[in-house]
Amino acid sequence: TTKEWNQLRKMLPQWVEESRRHCFDGKVASYIPELSKAPIEALGIHILDGRGNAVSAGDCGLSFTMQSISKVFTLILALIDNGEEAVFSKVGMEPTGDNFNSMLKLELVQPGIPFNPLINAGAIAISSLIAGESSLDKSARVLRFFQLLAGNDSLDYDYDVYRSESETANLNRSMGYLLKDNGVLEGDVEDVLDVYFRHCSISVTCSDLAKMALVLASNGKDPLSGKQLIPRRYVQIAKTFMTTCGMYNASGEFAIQVGLPAKSGVSGGILTMLPGRYGIGLVGPSLNRKGNSIAGVELLQKLSQQLDWSLF
Ligand code: GLN
């Protein structure tokens, strides 16, 4: 509504500055060495609706890598390529309660398939389901799909982050080999991991994320062009996973405090939406203990409470 847009335009800069103070209570991710270069005090947000209204505040010019946010969209591409039945023979539909990079349950719980597609193990399994002749061909299809959803043909990899992750990913590598042994992965493990590292390192801004989120908020249709880019059913599946598993093992708390489908990444990005209304992209590289943007979660709580956005 016009009233809400007026309030957003008026209040957003102030809410960003209030939330930004929390940056210093968190830490920038450093297990991927290149990510530790991100500015700890940054916070930016972009909100977009289907009529082309947009508002942004804070450090919206910052480029950052999608990291785990990309898992939502590789899941969708795998569903488009293989259908529901094939995808859910390789990954489950349940939250884990464990850290995003845990491999505990892959050994503990038979038949050793990842609990869901948004934890690392699940997303690695999903990257082996992307159609293509070679791993580079698969990665090229992923990048093109992301460009289409963001309406931005210049989306590309951050090669420094890609190399940095690939060189240090001992845990993800172990997971890949365990999954191969469990019969979950097709093909060469290193090729599958390369597809995964590449999609995690696609570089975006808040407005790219907002645009991708808006497509999900509009049930797969690009409201600006009117084109159906994703089948509605696959958007429904993606939004449900975002609600139950999107904020790692803080998804329950986020559902209570914010109440929107969302997906975070370790570079501090969060993609979220108010279904039927807004696509939202934000970034704040300083993370809380669960690995979510500390100031970003604060800001979303404020927005949700002030504007009564919770779906529940
Ligand atoms: N590329 C990162 C990793 O595999 C993604 C994790 C994340 O954003 N939580 O560790």
TrEMBL record:
Species classification: Bacteria, Bacillati, Bacillota, Bacilli, Bacillales
Organism of derivation: Paenibacillus harenae
InterPro entries reported in the protein's UniProt record: Beta-lactam/transpept-like (IPR012338), Glutaminase (IPR015868)
Pfam families: Glutaminase
Protein name in the entry: Glutaminase
The protein's Enzyme Commission number: 3.5.1.2
Keywords tagged on the record: Acetylation, Hydrolase
Gene3D superfamilies: DD-peptidase/beta-lactamase superfamily (3.40.710.10)
Molecular function via GO: glutaminase activity
Cleavable signal peptide: none
Main EC class the enzyme belongs to: hydrolase
Description of how the protein assembles with itself and partners: Homotetramer.
Residues noted as binding substrate in the record, renumbered to the chain: 68, 120, 165, 172, 196, 248, 266
Family: Belongs to the glutaminase family.
Reaction(s) this enzyme catalyzes, per UniProt: L-glutamine + H2O = L-glutamate + NH4(+)
